[in-house]
Amino acid sequence: MIERKWIEQLISMALQEDLGERGDLTSSAILDGKEQGKAKIVARQEGILAGVEICRLVFNQVDSSVESQVLKNDGQFLSDGEVVLQLQGSLKSLLMAERTALNFLAHLSGIATLTHQFVEAIRGFPVKLLDTRKTTPGWRMLEKYAVKVGGGTNHRMGLYDMILIKENHIRSVGGINTAVQKCRDHLRREGITARIEIEVTSLDELKEALALTVDQIMLDNMSVSEIRQAVAVTSGRVPLEASGTITLENIREIAATGVDFISVGKITHSAPAFDFSMLVE
To answer: Which of 116, 165, 188, 236 is a plausible cystine mate for 150, CB 3.0–4.6 Å?
Structure first.
C-alpha cells in the first residue's frame, strides 16, 4: 500500500515543476477562472490501465472543487477510444492539471501494459516475472505498483529489504564464500531477518553458490543453453532467477528452461508511455 501523503508530495513537486511561480500563463490569459465545464480522459490505444486514482488526485490538488467519475479501474483492459475518467469543474483548473495528470496516467499505464505483454508471453510456464530497481528516481513505489497491476511480481523494493550479492560485491571481498559469510554475520549482529540472493555469471560460480545454501540465485546474462544447464545442476535445491537481455522475443524460450523467476528491467525503465487525451466537452 502506497501512502497517500507520499503520493501527494510527488504530485505537488510535479505541479510546481509545471506551473512555476507564474502558473499557467495561457489559461490565465484566456480564462478568468469563472468558466465551468466538463472534460473526459480517453484512451488512444489498447492496454492496461494504471494510476487512475493518482490522476484524480492531481486534479483535486489543483482545485478541490473539481468533481470526477472513474469509469475504468486499474488493472482493466482498455480499448482505443474508451473513456477512463469524466471531470467537471473550473475549466482553468482542468487545463492547469491536464498535462501533469496525463503524465502520471500515461507512464504508469505504459508500465502496466508492457508488464502484461511479458506476463502473457510466459503464460503456461510456472515462472514469475520480476521487476528490478531500474526505476525513475522518486517514482519507485508507483512504478512497482504499476508492475503489479500488469500482473508482474515485485523484486526487492530497495537495498534495505533484501541482500543481493552482486559481482562487484564479490570482487570487493575476493570471493562468493567470503561475501555470503560477511552478510550472514551482519544480519546476525544487527538482529535483521532478510533473504540472501547471489548473482552468478557462470556454472562454476553457480556450483560454488549452491554449496552455501542461500535463498535464491540469479543467473546473470547467461545464454539459454547455460540457463538450461544451471537448472539441471541445481535440481530444484534453490530458486533460480534469470536476468539480463530479456526481451519479448526470447522470454518464452527462457521460461521453458525451468527457472523460477525472470527479472526484466525494461518494464520500468523503458516502457513506452500509454497514449491518453483529455477532451473538453
So the answer is: 116
Q: Which burial class, exposed, middle or buried, applies to 269 when counting CB atoms under 10 A from its CB (0-12, 13-18, 19+)? A: middle
Known catalytic residues? 99, 134, 166, 199, 220
User: What residue ranges of the chain are covered by domains with CATH 3.90.1170.20?
Assistant: 4-113+272-280
- 219 - beta bridge partners? 200, 242
The domain 120-269 having CATH identifier 3.20.20.70: the answer here is yes
| pLDDT tens digits, 182-200 | 999 999 999 999 999 999 9
Q: Name which CATH class applies to 4-113+272-280.
A: alpha beta
Q: How many helices (H) and strands (E) does the chain have?
A: 11, 12
The pTM assigned to this predicted structure is 0.95
- For 155-164, the pLDDT digits (tens) are 999 999 999 9
Residue 206 backbone phi and psi in degrees, to 5: -60, -45
